[in-house]
Amino acid sequence: MGKGYGKAYYTALADILDGSAPLSSGNNAEELIEIVGTELSAAVTGQKSVKEALDAAANGVERAIK
42-60 pLDDT, tens per residue? Predict the structure, then answer.
């Protein structure tokens, strides 16, 4: 086992991963996650308004799936 982590940690981690699912799958999944994540981060940090970020995310996703 990893240094500093006990059996309970790895048991909990295995339970979490067992019930997990990808954020997205299919064509361009990683690119789409990056586009949306970047724009959401811009909204959270105040670099863009929520509307600006959501509009940019929607436009970015539309470009990526064409």
Answer: 999 999 999 999 999 999 9
* Residue 39 near residue 48, CB atoms below 8 Å: yes
4: DSSP letter:
T
Greatest CA separation for the chain: 47
Question: In whole angstroms, what is the distance from residue 23 CA to residue 19 CA?
Answer: 13
Core vs surface per residue 27-41: b (16+ CB within 10 A) or e: eeeeebeebbeebee
For the entire predicted model, the pTM comes to: 0.66
What is the residue extent of each domain of the chain? 27-66
